[in-house]
Amino acid sequence: MEFSWSNGYFTLDRANSAIKMSRNFKKYRKYYLAILFAVILVLLPIHPAKAGWLAEWTIEHTFGYVLFIVMSVAGKMIGALATLLNWAIHIPVYPDGGIAVIDKSWEIMRNFANMFFIVALIMMAFATIFDVLPGAAKYNARALFGRFLLTALLINFSLVLGVLVIQGTQVLSNTFLVAIGDMANRLGQDLNPSQLLPSQSSVTAAVSLDAVVFGTLATLIFSIILIFTYLFSILTALIFVFIRIPILWALLIVSPMAWIMNVFPAGEGTFKKWWAIFFGWNMFLPIYLFFLYFGLYFLSNQRNIIQSIASEVSQAKISESLPFSLQLVFFYVMTAIFMIGGTIVAMKASMFSGTGVVGIAKWSRGIAAKRLGLTGANQAWQEKRKEIEGGEGRLGRIFGGPPAGLETSRRLLGVQGAGDIKPQKEFLAKMDKEAAVLRDQETTGKIIVDNTFKASALRQGANTAKGAAMRSILYERGMIDATEFDRDMAEWTQKNPFLAQRMSEQAKKGKYKKVPGKQLNDMYTAQAGSTYEKYRTPGATASRKEWFSFAAEDDDSLKTMDTNNIATGVGLHGGKDSNDGKEKLKTVAKKRPDVVAEYKLKEDGLTTTPLQLSRYIFKEIKNKSPIDLSKMLDATWANPSFQDALSRKASLLQRIQPSQPARPGKKAVPGGGDTFKSGLKKAVQNNPRKLKIARTI
Amino acid sequence: MDNQDNLFDTIDNDESSYSSLSTEQDNSMDIYSPFDVDAEEWSNDDYKWSEFVGRIGRLPASAQDVLFDSNAAYSIKDIASNHELTEDQIKNLSRVVRDTILGDLVLGEMSSNIATKLNLSNDIASAIANSIISELFKVAPQNKTIPKELPPRPPVLPNRPNLKIEPDVSRGNVVDLRNK
User: Fold this and answer.
1) How distant is the Cα of A610 from the closest Cα of chain B, in angstroms?
2) B174 with A678: Cβ contact below 8 A
3) Bias regions of kind Polar residues — which residues (chain B) (predicted)?
């Protein structure tokens, strides 16, 4: 169905748009009417006003009366509110003689709260008996008894303590109350917006123009706004000053319940919250009074300001100075800001953020300490203390001297001095903190250490505390693969050897799960010309030692370990004659005596012949039991020299203890070699290859 | 023990003494060992060898002891020499012992198995079987110590305490301790 003007019909679209326009007109009708009214006013013929005296008088007096009524009502209300506020701030929350309703109600609450001590005792008894239950440790007698006794004692003084806090804050309030005196009078005297109205004393051209232009504006707008601002600021303050009294009473009455909550770990938060609210409502008045005092102080000095503005304006020419009224308006706006701002700050700093009081105290303490140079002095002392503890500097040497080998280690690690070490160690401490937070988050189920976590960790820089902390967890879980390990270590050994070493320790916990043993061998060996030559730096030494220590016990690394690897690894640990080096050789020899024997043979400058090698292997295995021998790697068992050494050991044992043939009344006794062989076969019975070899020795 | 250590030190420090130690394989005892009797042949076939080793691995430790223990081989050697068995008969005797340990043959039929496999009379076979059982399988029954006395009876639980509430005790949940 198609409609168009051409065939004399409406189209459907045009009909719709007409309906829409009519709706829009309804919606914006008031704007259209306003525009129409303005247009009519503009187009009206302009003639000089010839209004009669009656019309003039009516307009002038109607406007004047409206203004008079508004100002008078607002003024009266301010007066009444100021009187009320003055009375309210002087009401003591808890007078000296006490308040019967509070005292009696508190007693009832205390008696009720006392019953919960029995509950606490039963709970402690159960938690102590069933200490194995998860979470019971928090409730057992050892954990709760101290708090239990303290609460049992202090619950009886909860009213006294509460009143003490009220009176303490009252002392603060009194300081301002005395200083302010009669607040209502002061406000009435000093707050005089009538000054904003035009006066007959305008003499200069500038004052006249100000009176005409700004005086009228101020009369109409600023004075009304200002007067209502004062009204609402005083009203708000009055409401809060009033309601704090019943709230504080209620808090005092329930104080025994808050104290009893402190016995139970789960109620500790409630107890703290009670204190926060109690402190907050107590602190409201002193904070508010401080700002009120400040506002009134500012207002009381207005005479000086008005005089200086007047003298400036009276001598000024037109457009040379800001008008009198505008300056005065600015002054009153500032006063209003102090008064409204004071109420807001008092509310924010007290009951709406219970800890705000503490926070502000800390902030102010920090600022004061900073200004006095205490922060700097404290930091300097902390640094010096660490220096002394580290055995550095003159005092460090006096109090025990530097730790043994510090200088040597520094030389080895390529560290220039404390200046380089400190930020690196600080970074480590920061990383540890971050890691602890992450672990807590994992425990509480906020994060899961999975591939998403890993992806997020890798996105973070390896040299940021968070990135390093996340990596630390991944290293510990063996979730870092060979390439990532090499990349991280290359960076850390350059920038922070301590971090590289720590991460290597973490990786050890994760058993270098995704790093092949061959790569690890190549990394600590750092053969010249190889990919891993980059680790042939002093900064990598500590990490290379860690890598070799792990490789010496890891089957995967030992499988591919050769004499070159051993020579480097033992060299890192001080050489074959050092205790550390000897220990490492012993460790490797537990699984690979053949490689250790070959290494020693080379170190002794002898040619590696099968017999020599067998003899050196024999030295390594002569005291080993069949069980120890069975734990040696397949690569070792496959070594002909090792097999030769085993045969010779069996032969020697047989020579030492030959077999005894059976004699009348005595059974045959196997020889030492026989026993050794049968023991060896039994020890390797689960490994067909080793068992085959054990049969042939 | 000290002498042994000294000898070990002497040997490994002196190359000629070390080289004098024999590395010749002594297979003379293989025929008496239930494990070694066919091991050489089977070890050439990886599949057979793995299967054999696997079966041994599943045996209890006491049975494995008999298979590998050099004392067992020496006991069989004694028995064989007592009954003047030939080398083939000795091998078959070791095989019977091995198969019995592995569970291929029944222990109770050892006598008839020996008679069949070694081609011996029932009397001799029975005597050999008795010797084998007493020498090689003696460990198991002896380890089982039969308790001479019955274990002490479990302590008799005392009667359940009387939980009846006395009439003068308040039945309320909250006991007002301050009045006590």
Assistant:
1) 11
2) no
3) 16-25
